[in-house]
Amino acid sequence: MGVSLKDIAKRAGVSVATVSNVVNGYRPVAEATRERVRQAIDELGYSPNLSARHLRNGRTGIIALAIPELNNPYFAELADAAIREAGLHGYTVLLDYTDGDREKELLVSQGFRAQVIDGLILSPVQLRRADVLSRTSETPMVLVGEGVYNVPYDHIAIDNVAASVAAMTHLLGLGRRRIAFVGAQSDVNRQPAQLRLLGYQEALSGAGLSYDPGLVVTTDYFGRSDGAAGLRRLMALPEPPDAVFAYNDLIAIGVLRAAVELGLRVPDDIAVVGFDDIDEGRYSNPTLTTISPDKADIGRRAVAALIGRLDGSREAEPEEVQVPFELVTRESTLGHPEPG
Amino acid sequence: MGVSLKDIAKRAGVSVATVSNVVNGYRPVAEATRERVRQAIDELGYSPNLSARHLRNGRTGIIALAIPELNNPYFAELADAAIREAGLHGYTVLLDYTDGDREKELLVSQGFRAQVIDGLILSPVQLRRADVLSRTSETPMVLVGEGVYNVPYDHIAIDNVAASVAAMTHLLGLGRRRIAFVGAQSDVNRQPAQLRLLGYQEALSGAGLSYDPGLVVTTDYFGRSDGAAGLRRLMALPEPPDAVFAYNDLIAIGVLRAAVELGLRVPDDIAVVGFDDIDEGRYSNPTLTTISPDKADIGRRAVAALIGRLDGSREAEPEEVQVPFELVTRESTLGHPEPG
Questions:
Q1: Considering only the top CATH level, what class is A160-293?
Q2: Is the pLDDT of residue A220 over 80?
Q3: Which SMART domains has this protein been placed in (chains A, B) (predicted)?
Q4: Cβ <8 Å between B49 and A340
């Protein structure tokens, strides 16, 4: 194995972040400290030249983060957290953009570009458990999100069923009885949508309400326009809903917009809950009640788990790490405060 | 110089995209075509192994795109366009995240990580003209956005002054006379804010209105919260404004939110125009009138210019390329249509 920043930090008696600052020049480091780090680098034979490092020890200092969407702020916020965390450890993040396409997810997972990356963080959408189990690439991988469970890789996610039950319990507690779900997927391999729909069904059942498939809107994609179209379909029903639980915040924001266009009052006529807690929902009119996964924590833990595998400090069996979430209640369910 | 995908495409008599599909496996290619491409690859001595390619001809197939913000959808949409265009040419995009920090922009520009990239597309925020002129790195670079002008690099941008004049002319045409500008920057090296403020001033002058510095709000950053705080400050003035021209859409969306909280009607009490045309402004309540730069065109042209420099097909002197923009009028200036 090659020499890692951690090895140098240990030898020099400084933090990994300090070594990274010396090597990458991110921040000024006191001359005496810099000299200690340089000496440790010389003694251990580490070279910050990426090509030389790559040839000598099979490392490039680059980890890939493969996400399905750039235009969804959820992934931008997640990537932001991962990039900052990786930077602290002296790693650069290469963003891979899978477009939620199964073929691209397979390519990334199977080691496409393995020559230039030390490890991979993958947020799969369509990848199946069997795909992951049959993976032959030896590039360390960490999974994030709800795509695949029970695989021999570290996996960082929130409990999607519990989160959906929390969203539904809030709506039920406000007296809503005809609650729609917008954002179901026709492809049953799209796990997150399945898990959130499961939570929706569980909560209905727990409240003694029957499940009406007519209140579940399947969408092609996960965007604002899908939410707007979904509400229009629902409001054309003989018995329209009094609330919407949306698969994600973008869909919920499309629902809010369509409500205005349809002349509906939110939450009086229709209450809306999203999922993701993107910044946009804190400034929408009305502001959006939503499930808030701890995105910064997901990014941090995914990077930490991967780097732990790379530098050998994480040797335990791969584990499923559950990150906390919370329900954030705002105007889309609680109503507008008086202006002031 | 090494062998490029273009060389192979020419030899095999197919498009660069087809070669890329064969080499990278993005999409299925008919067996006969695939064989022709493989033969051309063998004849020309091209190797898709990135490390080997790097050693042999100094190319990695990776271009870096350095952007200041991941959480601003403007840059996500721009990156999206660049990634798609680069993929068509067989290039992968490495996202560099400068955080709008001058030191990081200098690092990126001066060749940080030059070993792993073939070229760089940089959207500078604080980098100065002198910094660019004194650049010694030989890695080909293309600039996007309004950070730096008159430098010997291809530069893709819109005409910010003209765009701002267009936004102001729209507000003036609606009869607004006390128009505020939200998003000025105290650092005069922040060019885009300076240019948009210049357009604001030019339009006022053209309409025979005097410039009131009290209507210009300087913000620390470019986010929704800055816009919300800005409107609160403006509405506390003895003579509050009747319109806001915001530096960008995120600031404008913060203004829209604060207007609701202050009990103001948009556009009756205050009309709002943004800049960027991010998707969010198409679904906000009210929808946002904005300047729409052709982001897809910026991404495409930046990648095309860079690849042209890399493969030698672009040999002309570096040029300033102006990309079109348009004013998109929506509810935040025109008012709400009847629900329906």
A1: alpha beta
A2: yes
A3: HTH_LACI (SM00354)
A4: no
